[in-house]
Amino acid sequence: MKIAKSDHIKTIFKNKLPLLYGIALAAILFLIKWLEYQFVIIDHALEIYIGAIALIFTALGIWLPLKLSKPKLQTVVIEKEVYLQKQDPDYVPDEQQLLKMGISRREWEVLSLMSQGLSNQEIANQLYVSLNTVKTHGSNLFLKLEVKRRTQAIEKGKRMGLIG
Amino acid sequence: MKIAKSDHIKTIFKNKLPLLYGIALAAILFLIKWLEYQFVIIDHALEIYIGAIALIFTALGIWLPLKLSKPKLQTVVIEKEVYLQKQDPDYVPDEQQLLKMGISRREWEVLSLMSQGLSNQEIANQLYVSLNTVKTHGSNLFLKLEVKRRTQAIEKGKRMGLIG
DNA sequence: AGTGAAATCACCCAAAAGTATGAGTGATAT
DNA sequence: ATATCACTCATACTTTTGGGTGATTTCACT
Asked: A22, B65, B135, B139 - which has most CB atoms within 10 Å?
């Protein structure tokens, strides 16, 4: 996820851009002089020169940003399968997992009691908090586990080793 | 991630680009003529003109693609972990237990799907029966398992080896 | 002192789950 | 034949669950 090309781009601009300009201008002037001395003077020669220069430098202007500009980022999510073993009964909540999922202590407690088959009201009684609080913890838990129902939360929680 | 601007860009290129070029060239030529007649001839006037033109058209070349082209895309791959658990594919429910509990085949199927986190409606779709039927099976199942909720049924079902 | 996360709780609304009851069908056993 | 049972489905009703919003407090960290 590192995007540290700006320094690179600045370097190119400071070092190479004037050089390119110099080369291009020199080439153009040389071409003009060469044409002047090699051939008879052409009608509207000035306009032709100007047109040619315009075209060449427009092309240069188009080409430069394409090469130098940093691309926009496109995010692609790839699902990586992680296999876990069956948990032993006296499993201690995986602190790493909980942290990674951003699940708080209270949320985990609610999940744990849910998995034991308690209703929200029963969980509220058990934790000495209101039913609303349990529901809030539940909702946040479902968001973090990316599930829709308590049964899914239980199932996923077990698979991830969050609960025994 | 929709990028459907190419038609738009083509239209601009076909209609507006030649116009811009015409205007720019006319302005340049006018400027040159004006300078020619207003002031004394300057040393290296041609080179100055050419430099000015080069600058202007380079700027034009830079500005045009920025406005018109679709941005370059760089793909950033984010790995999202999906937690799976190798499950006994041919898990055989404890027939003895099922018989002892008087749980029918259909009721067991409902229990099994419940334990996977499915809603009653999803179970109904899966089994090609109506939502009411699933509810009936569920109610009967709860009676036989002596539980009040699906979460309790899941918990008890696992403990009794009815489901994997 | 200010910021931010966690925890608490309320209110409202909608959806899902669960209960109760009745009823029709087909297969099977008595 | 008929009684039983699993399965199906419906209607009506209640409870539980879940989503969204917003408020308050506490506590740690800056």
From this structure: B65
